[in-house]
Design goal:
It is a single chain. By secondary structure, the chain is an alpha+beta fold. 37% of the residues are buried. A hairpin with a 2-residue loop joins strand 5 and strand 6. It has a six-stranded mixed β-sheet with strand order 1-3-2-4-5-6. Helices cover 28% and strands 24% of the residues.
Length: 145
């Protein structure tokens, strides 16, 4: 079920990880990437089961844009959620596009080492990694805060 603020609610019908991919692909279609021509979409499932999506939003003043993962995280946080259970990422021009280094740390802020990260191509999920695979020595936020 879709609504206008890019969130998907699955309270009535649990979403599969493939539906997480579909949400990321739909978000990618909303990307604002006039400079790089490299649209990216991300979908995050929060601990409450809701899906929060984002697309990259570029700005002529590089590097002042937002990555798709950053946009999805901001939707999640503004909805009052703080825990990510899984993430799907898809890029139009690069199959299995992983989150950038900055987004890896941003994801770690709201995830655990075993949080599943799904890397996709245009047809679906092709690789599943744990966050610890992408960022093996992240800052441990529970120690700092």
């Amino acid at each position: 079920m879709h609504n206008n603020d890019d969130m998907h609610n699955n309270k009535e019908c649990p979403m599969s990880k493939d539906e997480l991919f579909v949400a990321a692909r739909e978000a990618m279609a909303k990307a604002h990437a006039p400079y790089s021509k490299f649209p990216v979409g991300a979908a995050i499932r929060a601990e409450d089961g809701k899906i929060y999506t984002g697309a990259n939003i570029e700005n002529l003043s590089f590097p002042e844009g937002w990555c798709a993962e950053t946009t999805a995280i901001s939707h999640m946080v503004m909805a009052g959620q703080r825990k990510i259970t899984e993430v799907a990422v898809v890029a139009e021009k690069l199959a299995l596009c992983p989150p950038c280094g900055g987004c890896r740390q941003r994801l770690a802020e709201f995830s655990g080492a075993s949080t599943r990260i799904y890397l996709c191509d245009e047809t679906g999920i092709r690789k599943t990694l744990a966050l610890s695979d992408l960022l093996p020595h992240s800052f441990e936020t529970e120690i700092l805060g």
